[in-house]
Amino acid sequence: MMLDTKFYTLVVDKSFCQEFRARLGDGNIFDKKRKLLIKDDLAELPIVTKPDETLEKELKDICSFQIKSDCVAELKGKSSIKESLLSKVEEISDFPLDEKLLQEIPDSWEFYGDLLLLPGNSFSDAKWCPKLPQILQAICSMFKVKRVARKHLVINDKFRSPRTDLLLGSDPWVFRKENGITYHFDITKCMFSAGNISEKLRVSKFDCSGETVVDLFAGIGYFTLPYLVHAKAEYMYACEWNPDSVVALQINLEKLGLSDRCSVLEGDNRLVCPKNVADRVNLGLIPGSDISWRTACEALKDSGGILHIHGNVESKKEENKQEKMKVWAEATSETIKNLLNEVKSNQSWDCQILHIECVKSYAPRVYHLVLDLECKHSS
């Protein structure tokens, strides 16, 4: 039976393909059942529907793009990747697949080089154990990878450690290329924050020539590397207290030839961050970075500078979202001003809100924001 189906495709310069793929995935509109195509200098990304107003604005902030819609005749029942995987699993299994087992066959995945990362509930029932090695080999063949891992929720420890099991393979080190930067990390010990791509791209457009920048929550280099590679910061101080992330950050700096422009400071930033050194401080921690606001103020040069303060803001259904964001920014600005007048009391300080960036919707009606705040002497 033939059906007329409308398909949407987002067309963008191929150099932005990976960034757009991540944002479309975060917005749950990337169509995994269709192929992403590269034609000459353009990437054609399949989407299930047009982006909403918020996502469209975020994408336009990256670069211009075009949406195409085509009505094509498609054969009903055509096998998707999910259906092909299901068919292969049924072929391998010698036991009936009940509803619970069927739900554990993945319909989403992430690529990290030659490693495929599956959702946390994938093949988790003990019934899979005898056939799991054969299923994993089939997955490798189908997806053209050599290793398979399964992710879980982040452990709520002080390091926000991931719980990722390596199901097939022995080497946990992977890489992810984003915005022209390759990040290397141990996938069983570190996490990759793909959802912050729009903010990383924004940072990449900053002009930090001649500036010293402090990154208080550096991780594996999510923002540290864009500041050095694209924003051209003269020098960085990268604070990170997860020892596994520190190892990955040092490797990434070395591979990019940036080690001589960055000091990696392992430990609690409130204890290891230098004072009076920064033209700019990045506070990239959510749901809030307030634990280190005083540290950020102390890190700024006595002449002042700019703080990029991350935080989550909730807006209830009956509330005005923009107004809630503004209230948060103004309250944050006032707190920072008071802290500056405490820690740098030889001067009188003012703070000016330069910009409020909405990075993404972190949860229903919860928004990940970044406040760009200029700190300067009052006249």
Question: Which structural traits does this protein have?
Answer:
single chain; 379 residues; alpha/beta; 4-stranded antiparallel beta sheet; 11 helices; 29% helix; globular
What would you say about this model in short?
With 379 residues, this protein is α/β, with parallel strands linked by helices.
Topology:
Elements: E1 2-13, H1 17-26, E2 37-39, E3 42-47, H2 53-62, E4 66-75, H3 81-92, H4 99-103, E5 110-112, E6 115-118, H5 132-143, E7 147-151, E8 164-168, E9 173-178, E10 181-186, H6 197-204, E11 212-215, H7 224-229, E12 235-240, H8 243-255, E13 262-266, H9 269-272, E14 280-283, H10 293-299, E15 305-314, H11 321-343, E16 349-363, E17 366-377
Largest sheet: 7 strands, mixed
Beta-strand content estimate: 25-35%
**Individual helix count:** 11
Q: What ranges have pLDDT less than 50 throughout 5 or more consecutive residues?
A: 1-5, 72-79
Envelope shape: globular
Can you walk through the features of this model?
The protein is an alpha/beta fold. 29% of the residues lie in helices and 31% in strands. It has helices at 17-26, 53-62, 81-92, 99-103, 132-143, 197-204, 224-229, 243-255, 269-272, 293-299, 321-343; strands at 2-13, 37-39, 42-47, 66-75, 110-112, 115-118, 147-151, 164-168, 173-178, 181-186, 212-215, 235-240, 262-266, 280-283, 305-314, 349-363, 366-377. The strands form four sheets. The protein has a seven-stranded mixed β-sheet with strand order 13-12-11-14-15-17-16, sandwiched between helices. Helix 3 (81-92) packs antiparallel against helix 5 (132-143). The N and C termini lie far apart (75 Å). Mean pLDDT is 89; it is low at 1-5 and 72-79.
